[in-house]
């Protein structure tokens, strides 16, 4: 499988003068279903699937979506916003058409995380059980590569209709008169589950539209800009990227996560060859690109077309910003390309986002000042006991954020505490979970459980409150420690997770390695932590490559790591 496609599809071959024609096309957009008649009139814009050697023009989506909506109507599911329809498909034209078919039928889409079939069909289906029950799915739309498992899924869930997406015949118009309203439910987005069991965030059409338009506005998307996505479409980051570039009439080149992770250099060479402007991913994705550049695997490429590298989904590392400039600057990437942001599934991604074309800011904060409710102490530059924190930008369009302490008191700028937010793209609540909804939303503000501070109207995120480790009365953020030790010689590809042994009030470092004798690695980790963090004694556990579990977006599953460590399982 090659990564090259027909040269006629290259963005540069059709890119016109910069402009914002898409704004005029979408000025009446109130729901995502309203986009379908707009797409039907498009003469430009396509989704390119290089791994599948196919593409889907924007104008082809409506007829195929209406065919899906007709099948849902036959199943008795049209115009029932409270009903949920699962979509089980990998990144493909079928997923896109199914999503818009659900929108056109005015029911709610539940993108299902794609299960691995490495352990067999029964094991894969078992992993679907909790979501199917939690979401109370009335129908599952099945697409590649899961078409052949439709019968097994139907047998397992006899009360759930199973529809093969590829079998839905295209129709020239929507098969019903009632279309969604902004307050109708569009998506139930399940969180990636990095810290707890996933919950279903209910996202209304109006909130989804606000998120998509805000992303396009803040990202500075212009006519002719093209984008690349590899984050899976069942993840909120991938879903909003897809919808943003459909709204803006942009070409979107869509890869699977496996291809990007395993063939990073080839994927970025494709990115450069096709003069793509936008790339999205969490911080670890940029580390992979930078490692490829450092190894010489990107030599000779031209990145001058790169407009914005949206870095969100996990804390943004200052070292990644520095290496981005050092390694990709000579290839044409400008220092302003890196675009940090912060968000959550509960906001269809966006809580804050740096405007495209602005230089990301870094401040050096005295680690000892990061106490709940305390004023943060800023150093002029790197200093002993200081930790670099990257600004993740001003508030996303239509969003407000603030900082509160453990007692719920709202703090002034420059104080450390929990990040709270509210806005037009915020969730309605958690599906059938009033307890979690009431715990998460206080007086209309969503409690993120992340910690940070605000300076000059910009948000600085330090980590999750649940990842705070207390040792001898001192607070340490797991992320800070991980950043300090991930490059110690012997650590396999920066695979390191730091958790707390609460019972013993100890810090535990879990690191993947391929070293035959890990003694030197353990000594190096302890020395680095003592030098950079100021903690002299920590527990270090070495594990084999692949032991540490990740979420669908690449974040470490800290909760699962804790369970493995402290439930008596062998490490």
Short description:
By secondary structure, this protein is an alpha/beta fold.
Molecular structure report:
This protein is an alpha/beta fold and 571 residues long. The chain contains 17 helices and 29 strands. It has an 8-stranded mixed beta sheet with strand order 2-1-10-9-11-12-13-14. Helix 4 packs across helix 5, helix 8 packs across helix 9 (236-247) and helix 12 runs parallel beside helix 13. The longest helix has 15 residues, at 121-135. It is globular and about 70 Å long. The two termini are 37 Å apart. Residues 4-17 have low confidence and may be disordered. This is AMP-binding protein. It comes from Amycolatopsis coloradensis.
